[in-house]
Amino acid sequence: MTKKVIHGILAALFVVFTYVQFNDPDPERWVTLYGMVAGLSLLHGFWKPLPYVTVALMGLCLIWALTLIPGMLEWFASDDKSEMLGHMMDDKPYIEQTRELGGLLIASAALFYLWWSSRPKKEEQA
């Protein structure tokens, strides 16, 4: 599969992720984040890659993810793991924190791929 196809699939996937965030309690940050990943996917695939922006956004995602690890650990310690698939509960914020951590890790993985796939090949460096 060519890089353009993979980048196009990533862009489409993150557009869908962006769209479903509009009903989230805090859509601004998620629409912005997923929209930026979708945009960078298009830039990397069809125009000029922006490696520094990609790495910076990936770093931001990973730092943000670190702040959510306590919530994930609380979910691991809970008795009912299936509540992750249910509705958000005010008395269990760790459910949303764990979901958000997953979203940040998916975005980070996509950004890592974009960065990795756009670095110059050894033949191009010489």
Automatic annotation (TrEMBL):
UniProt entry tagged with the keyword Signal: no
Entries under Pfam families matching the protein: TMEM220
Protein name (Swiss-Prot/TrEMBL): Transmembrane 220 family protein
Alphabetic keyword roster: Membrane, Transmembrane, Transmembrane helix
Domain of life: Bacteria
Residue spans crossing the bilayer: 6-23, 30-47, 53-77, 98-116
